[in-house]
Amino acid sequence: MKKAAVSAAVIMIMLTAGCTGQNTAPKLKFGSSVDCSISCGGRDYRCKLSLVSDDTEKITMTYPQSVEGVTFGRSGGNNTVSMDSLLCRSEGSFLPDDSVPVRAEEIIRYLKKNREEIKLFPDGDGYGNDDLPGMKIRTDENGTLAEVTASGK
What we know:
This protein has about 150 residues and is of the alpha+beta class. The chain has helices at about 1-15, 100-115; strands spanning about 35-40, 45-55, 55-65, 70-75, 80-85, 85-90, 120-125, 125-130, 135-140, 145-150.
């Protein structure tokens, strides 16, 4: 009986050795760009979200082919839409509130504003969170944002 108790104690120590609570998820970080999929108006779109600086954002459409290469940019209060050598600038937004670029801007603003509070959970080789309003995120193993999946309004 005493031998069984000692054996059980040794096994418990071996199983819990190294469990120091250090396995916490990293904080959400932003890299140079992130892949984003948005379902809007019954269609699926893909784009790259880029955070150039705190007040400068760029959204480059990658799918469907009909909008591939169209880039929406915002720096301060100035907005641009460009493709190849064509460029359109405006002060203030000129796109409908339910458009894909506006939804992508909302995603960027939400993630920037709330990144300290967003909890990341282990997910495959990285981390993720499926409980954010209207979106799911995935990161790499260091917490750098790798993918956003969202729905439109």
